[in-house]
Amino acid sequence: MLSISDVVIGILQAAVIMALSPLVTGIMRKTKARTQKRAGAGVLQPYYDIAKLLRKDEVVSDQSSWIFRVSPWINFVAIGTAAFFIPVFLAYSPFGLAGDLLLVIGLFALARFFTMLAGLDVSSSFGGLGSSREMMLSSLLEPAAFLAVFVVAVTYGGTNISTITEAASGSALLPHPQLIFAAIAMFVVMLGETGRLPFDNPATHLELTMVHEAMALEYSGKSLALVEWSQSIKQLILFALIVDMFVPWAIPQYPGPMAVGLGLSAFVVKVAVLAAGVAFLESSVAKWRLFRLPDLVSVAIASSMIGLVFYYL
Amino acid sequence: MGGSGDILGNRLEARAKDGLVRFPCGACPSVAGRYEEIGSELREKIAKMFGRSLAIREVDAGSCNGCEIEISALNNPVYDIERFGIRFVSSPRHADVLLVTGPVSRNMEAALRRTYEAIPSPKIVVAVGACAADGGIFGDTYATAGGVGRVVPADVYIPGCPPRPELLLQGLLLAINRLRQEPGGRGQASSGLARS
Fold first, then answer.
1. Is residue B159 part of a domain?
2. Distance between CA B121 and CA B31 in Å, rounded?
3. Residue A210 pLDDT > 50, yes or no?
4. DSSP state, B55?
5. Do A45 and B118 touch (CB under 8 A)?
6. Which residue, A97, A191, A209, B134, has most beta carbons within 10 Å?
7. Nearest 5 degrees, angle CA A74-CA A79-CA A80?
8. Residue B30 in 3-state DSSP?
9. C-alpha–C-alpha distance, residues A25 and A235, integer Å
10. DSSP string computed for A1-53
11. Which residue, B140, B127, B131, B134, is CA-closest to B168?
């Protein structure tokens, strides 16, 4: 059973993810601005944006129903719950008893389902466009995500994230070549799930090319703040999963002041490097044509398949 | 002077741009080279009034796209408006500032009004360019409304054809200053030109 200290550790880890997630978005925007030889906004700008939106009025279309109003909350609660299962500065998450990697993917699917409904709900043409694209992409990305996760799960014996991270931090990558293929697949899935290039351009102003942004066009004020914040949290969760599963170095096994400090700084450094890498990648590729994207997802699926073959060899 | 002789070009001669266009307030020459200065002042004002974050929605209400070129110059590496905490957004519902160009053609009239209604308060309307001020070279005809102020309550008019990015920034600064003068809501419609 969970002790008090376990509960505190679990809540702290989730709080770290929620608190740091806008910072990661800020780092990525700053990196992209730098690659364009611009100074860009400060890394704290996403926090300011959210704080301002919380103080603004909200305008809701009179064509919308309750789905539009509850969708940001369902989004936030689903993705916020997923944050409780992710190991951050320790190799385990005490709430891992209640949910594993499959539940995290399921919670993401729940959040996305309501986002898609909200996109359709306001009967704006761009919302429906975004929803249909998101539906197409998610039906491809979810199997790819499951396959990548299965490769990791069969290697370390279970889909529980704590088990995976603990086993991963105690072993080397070399005896498990299948993990390299799983990492490739997981990276592609992460790009798609967080709406990064070449799947979706988060900085676009062209409604015709939007995927995720198109469904958030109608939100304003507090709802928009929730939508943006949950999107950042989801992004950080996926970064943290990649870090936990594939580069689990310097993650302490047991709590302690030194261990937590080391684990937290290692986490921040690894996530920042990953975020900057993704931002660099975004600066160097163009958005792909929508119907070419299944090719990229099939690369992820094929990579996972190769990983599975390597596991049984 | 007067008479048809002028129109036919008998007495007109080619002149430099300075001779043709007289800046009524001297605004345009005086903001040249002061971009950084205006920008840092604007950043401080945004920090006070909007919590360090200002979102702009740009609407082209029948403009010739001259103003759009200057507005998009704000995003390039030279002007880089993002470092002052300002960004352009893709939906009026995300915006604090409505930036309108053009004389408001009849086809854009309803769209502009609805865009204005879609912006959550507090909100500011900035009319950019000579056409947005009074119709400009398009004038007040059957095809245009003759200025942004006739369709939505504009807070600030930025003169110029097209206005320089410096002047755009100064116009935003003026608009935010006007917002402070009227607490508890957005500024009233009036014709404050962006004078320095």
1. yes
2. 30
3. yes
4. E
5. no
6. A191
7. 95
8. helix
9. 8
10. ---HHHHHHHHHHHHHHHHHHHHHHHHHHHHHHHHTT---S-TTHHHHHHHHH
11. B127
Give the minimum alpha-carbon distance from B66 to chain A in angstroms, rounded to a whole number: 19
DSSP string of B106-148?
Answer: HHHHHHHHHHHHHSPSS-EEEEESHHHHH-GGG-S-TTB-SSG
Residue with tokens 């490739």: A184
Residues of A in contact with B51 (CB under 8 A): 48, 51-52, 55
- What's the total number of domains in chain B? 1
Put simply, the answer to whether B82 touches A49 (Cβ < 8 Å) is no
What's the pLDDT tens digit per position in A56-79?
888 888 888 999 999 999 999 999
Q: Does the distance separating the beta carbons of B91 and A217 come in below 8 Å? A: yes
A187-200 per-position pLDDT tens digit: 999 999 998 888 88
B7 in a domain, yes or no?
no
Domain of residue B89 covers 23-193
**pTM score:** 0.87
Tell me the CATH number at B60.
Answer: 3.40.50.12280
- Which residue among A37, A48, A57 places its CB closest to the CB of B52? A48
Distance CA B85, CA B53 (A): 5
Determine if residue A117 is left, alpha or beta; phi over 0 gives left, psi from -120 to 50 gives alpha, anything else beta. alpha
Using DSSP's 3-state secondary structure scheme, residue A281 falls into: helix
Is B93 at the interface with chain A, CB within 8 A? Answer: yes
